[in-house]
């Protein structure tokens, strides 16, 4: 018999298929409703053209077929994962996605880690100082950061840390003609990612701060904490084991939910910081009406979100002993 | 002490002012101003836009977004100079009296980047296989080209079936005649595969640089062509175009020294004065004189109100182009337009045309007289306005036009476009607009891309053409004659007549002529030394020491 964790993963993947298909259909409908197609966009980029050229291109790119023929061709390409070439970037869609996916995962992973760790810690501190000045300060700053639009925060960070202080590079993923050795390059990339990660991480930090604070406030007053206190356990251990750990569950749930949102937020951040990731590719694809590329981005994004959520679900078991393999299998987890 | 309290309008302006103060206080190195060019170095240029056009072959694709990159790799037969054309791959040219042939003398000793000599066979191939069949301008200028004869390796003779004005062909050389190596392109699928062909993604030519790396949406790297024909040129080792989609981030990259130059609408207009005041950074229109754009208001003459010339004139009177110049362009590189040809195009421009003054009261009276009185709701009629999303200035002009027309009782409903594709299909294919803000670019001869915005009887689906339904037999004839009249003075007179008719009839309203004001580091030498600088080869550009 298969291990229950594997069964769980397979089941979740199967459940994800209709979701991806519905998203794919939605993308087609929205793009169909928007005026302009890839040929209009191409002609604008090359400075115009006449009717014969436009007709030739529409024929070549399969855009002169009826909407149903195009829909079926599109769905076929989605189902078979054979997305063809992108007219916007001039390379196969798979190649365009695969070169950019790692960048986005790196950016989002770092940002999520930052917002969750920092938000969780500060939320914990706020909860333990509930009602006092530090609590007010932390929750207010968190909310303020959450309310600031990401692109604006990004520009302010650029003004302060790039233009004034000169600590970080303004844009891009690496220095033009920068170090080519692996270590030097990795450090160079990390140096470039500091500001975009901080921008993205700080904007989303408030959520975790509020969640952690709320959950810890609740667990703080719970009977098992009182019992632990009565048993005379050291307070550090009580905070870690009896207050913080059970409070992590909603934070973990939020992590899974946030990945999709952050993928959206990275469109803006990748534009401000000129990071060649999935977000900027999505923007490129939509503004150029490049259907195969959009489909590719949507599929890749869905996979990232689904995988992340499976990981989150699996982590429940480690965070909360009550969530057993049995519960995972029945899908309750 | 000041009588009024000064308070920054927003945190951002406050920060900007602080940034200015801090930067001004910092000592900066004195720039080396030695006259002799320094060899070596990488020039990093902030490329605007989110993507590089996938088809970068200037023999096929002619937009400035293509040619500012590819002009470093593929050269033209001639360039534009401050006082007329300047030889490049051609050393001279002349047309026959009957307009049926145009002879080009080619430069000796030029090779392509692979070392193969450049000859008349390459000009013949480019003209017959690329410019005439594939290029939007070539299809117009070379419409009657029959063949290109090559009596010897350094002479190419264009033969036309119908008279073609030599001045038109010559004027078109700097934008049309990008020469491809026949021995590389012949027999390939570059003409059909378009942006999928590697030869169009990274084209090959005689230019001072060659393509060495293209990362879509990230950077394009050009490296020195060791076989370049120019003596000791190019001076730079590399030119890198780094994609920086956000204009404010481009300004920051320039300030921090990460890039040395921006081009076209490189930095936010509001930042230009501040950047120009910084040590080591300049903002200027120099080098963009003949890369003129216009903000124009197009009419759909299928709307009965707009088919009435009295209404169009009233709308012109209701608009104040000087307001757009002062408040949207902040007075930088812009002036009130008198017609479709900008004043900078001295060979064709005339100011002897009907002028209009901004007069809201007169506009209202004219609309009353035309039979469109104010309704009970204070509105005469309502127009749907489509705005080209190409530049921040076109979008802002849309907002201005709405306010100005509502002032005289014409309701305006702005229909936003999220991308060029949306605007182009709605306006030029579906003709689904009442009025539209367009931003045509002027090329060195009105016949190339200007008269197509006024000629009647075009089919739908041609981007940047007259799709508003205006069709005037007299104007059509003048436009047709301009394409076949040989005598240069007679041609100029025809285009003067063209400007007069357009000013009288207002098939569309030319509001503002403008050129871009980019900013660059003062380290970049020989910047802006010709009137179409960003789309020329940069063989003589060099970087001074920091």
Q: What does this protein look like?
A:
The complex is a heterodimer of chains A (333) and B (546). Chain A contains 13 helices and no strands. The model of chain A has no long low-confidence stretch (mean pLDDT 84). Chain A has 333 residues and is mainly alpha-helical. Chain B contains 19 helices and 21 strands. In chain B, the strands form six sheets. Chain B has a six-stranded mixed beta sheet with strand order 14-18-13-17-15-16, with helices on both faces. A five-stranded mixed beta sheet of chain B has the order 8-9-10-1-11, covered by helices on one side. A four-stranded antiparallel beta sheet of chain B has the order 4-5-7-6, with helices on one face. In chain B, 55% of the residues are buried. Classes of the chains: A mainly alpha (333), B alpha+beta (546). Chains A and B meet through α2, α3, α7 and α11 of A and α1, α2, β10, α9 and α16 of B.
Q: Report the sheet with the most strands of chain B, covering strand number, pairing sense and barrel closure.
A: 6 strands, mixed
* Total E-strand runs of chain A: 0
Outline of chain A: globular
The percent range for strand residues of chain A is under 5%
Computed structural class of chain A: mainly alpha
The best one-word shape of chain B is globular
| Oligomeric assembly | heterodimer
What's the gyration radius of chain A in Å?
24 Å
SS element count, helices of chain B: 19
Encode the helix/strand succession of chain A as letters: HHHHHHHHHHHHH
Largest interface: A-B, 60 and 67 residues
Averaged pLDDT of chain B, please?
90
Low-confidence stretches of chain A: none
How much helix, percentage-wise, in residues of chain A? over 70%
Q: Output the structural class of chain B.
A: alpha+beta
Query: Low-confidence segments of chain B, ≥5 residues, pLDDT <50?
Result: 1-34
N- to C-terminal separation of chain A? 21 Å
Number of helices of chain A: 13
What is the topology, as strand order, of the major beta sheet of chain B? 14-18-13-17-15-16
């Amino acid at each position: 018999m298969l291990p229950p964790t594997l069964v769980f993963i397979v089941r979740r993947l199967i459940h994800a298929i209709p979701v991806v298909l519905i998203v794919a259909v939605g993308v087609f409908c929205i793009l169909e409703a928007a005026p302009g197609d890839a040929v209009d966009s191409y002609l604008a980029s090359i400075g115009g053209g006449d009717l014969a050229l436009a007709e030739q291109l529409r024929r070549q790119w399969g855009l002169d077929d009826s909407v149903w023929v195009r829909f079926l061709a599109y769905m076929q390409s989605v189902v078979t994962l054979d997305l063809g070439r992108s007219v916007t970037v001039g390379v196969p869609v798979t190649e365009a996605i695969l070169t950019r996916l790692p960048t986005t995962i790196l950016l989002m992973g770092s940002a999520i880690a930052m917002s969750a760790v920092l938000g969780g810690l500060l939320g914990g501190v706020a909860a333990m100082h509930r009602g006092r000045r530090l609590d007010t300060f932390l929750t207010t700053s968190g909310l303020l950061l959450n309310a600031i639009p990401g692109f604006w925060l990004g520009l302010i960070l650029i003004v302060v840390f790039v233009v004034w202080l000169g600590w970080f590079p303004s844009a891009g993923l690496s220095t033009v003609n920068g170090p080519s050795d692996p270590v030097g390059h990795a450090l160079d990339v990390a140096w470039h990612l500091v500001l975009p990660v901080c921008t993205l991480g700080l904007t989303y930090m408030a959520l975790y701060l509020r969640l952690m604070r709320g959950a810890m406030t609740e667990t703080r007053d719970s009977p098992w904490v009182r019992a632990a206190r009565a048993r005379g356990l050291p307070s550090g251990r009580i905070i870690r084991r009896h207050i913080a750990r059970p409070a992590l569950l909603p934070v973990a749930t939020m992590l899974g939910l946030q990945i999709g949102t952050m993928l959206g937020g990275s469109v803006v951040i990748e534009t401000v910081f000129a990071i060649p990731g999935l977000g900027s590719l999505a923007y490129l694809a939509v503004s150029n009406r490049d259907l195969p590329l959009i489909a590719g981005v949507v599929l890749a994004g869905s996979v990232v979100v689904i995988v992340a959520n499976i990981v989150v679900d699996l982590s429940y078991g480690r965070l909360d002993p009550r969530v057993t393999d049995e519960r995972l299998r029945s899908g309750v987890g | 002490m000041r009588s009024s309290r000064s308070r920054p309008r927003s945190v951002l302006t406050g920060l900007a002012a602080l940034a200015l103060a801090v930067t001004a206080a910092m000592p900066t190195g004195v720039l080396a101003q030695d006259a002799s060019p320094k060899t070596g170095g990488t020039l990093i240029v902030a490329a605007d836009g989110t993507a590089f056009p996938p088809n970068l072959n200037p023999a096929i694709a002619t937009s400035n977004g293509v040619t500012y990159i590819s002009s470093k790799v593929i050269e033209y037969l001639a360039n534009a100079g401050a006082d007329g054309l300047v030889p490049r791959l051609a050393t001279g040219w002349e047309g026959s009296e009957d307009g049926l042939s145009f002879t080009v003398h080619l430069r000796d000793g030029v090779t392509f980047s692979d070392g193969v000599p450049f000859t008349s066979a390459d000009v013949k191939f480019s003209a017959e296989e690329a410019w005439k069949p594939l290029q939007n301008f070539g299809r117009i200028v070379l419409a009657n080209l029959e063949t290109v004869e090559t009596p010897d390796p350094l002479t190419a003779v264009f033969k036309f079936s119908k008279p073609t004005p030599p001045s038109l062909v010559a004027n078109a050389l700097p934008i049309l005649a990008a020469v491809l190596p026949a021995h590389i392109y012949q027999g390939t699928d570059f003409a059909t595969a378009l942006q999928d062909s590697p030869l169009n993604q990274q084209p090959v030519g005689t230019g001072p640089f060659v393509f060495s790396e293209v990362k879509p949406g990230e950077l394009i790297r050009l490296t020195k062509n060791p076989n370049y024909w120019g003596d000791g040129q190019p001076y730079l080792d590399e030119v890198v175009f780094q994609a920086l989609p956000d204009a404010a981030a481009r300004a920051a990259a320039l300030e921090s020294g990460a890039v040395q130059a921006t081009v076209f609408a490189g930095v936010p207009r509001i930042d230009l004065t501040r950047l120009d005041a910084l040590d080591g950074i300049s903002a200027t229109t120099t080098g963009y004189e003949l890369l003129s754009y216009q903000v124009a208001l197009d009419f759909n003459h299928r709307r009965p109100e707009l088919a009435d010339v009295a209404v169009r004139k009233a709308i012109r009177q209701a608009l104040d182009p000087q307001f757009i110049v002062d408040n949207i362009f902040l007075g930088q590189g812009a002036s009130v337009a008198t017609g479709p040809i900008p004043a900078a195009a001295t060979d064709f421009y005339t100011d002897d045309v009907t002028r209009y003054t901004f007069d809201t009261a007169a506009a209202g009276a004219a609309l009353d007289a035309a039979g469109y009185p104010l309704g009970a709701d204070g509105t005469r009629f309502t127009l749907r306005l489509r705005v080209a999303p190409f530049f921040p200035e076109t979008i802002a002009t849309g907002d201005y036009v709405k306010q100005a027309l509502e002032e005289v009782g014409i309701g305006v409903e702005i229909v936003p476009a999220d991308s060029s594709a949306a605007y182009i299909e709605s306006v030029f294919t579906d003709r689904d607009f009442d009025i539209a803000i367009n931003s045509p670019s002027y090329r060195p001869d009105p016949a190339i891309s200007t008269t197509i915005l006024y000629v009647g009887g075009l089919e739908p689906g041609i981007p940047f053409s007259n799709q508003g339904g205006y069709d005037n037999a007299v104007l059509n004839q003048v436009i047709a004659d301009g394409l076949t009249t040989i005598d240069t003075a007679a041609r100029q007179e025809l285009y003067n007549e063209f400007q007069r008719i357009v000013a009288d009839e207002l098939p569309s309203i030319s509001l503002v002529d403008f050129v871009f004001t980019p900013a660059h580091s003062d380290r970049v030498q020989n910047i802006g030394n010709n009137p179409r600088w960003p789309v020329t080869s940069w063989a003589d550009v060099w970087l001074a020491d920091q």
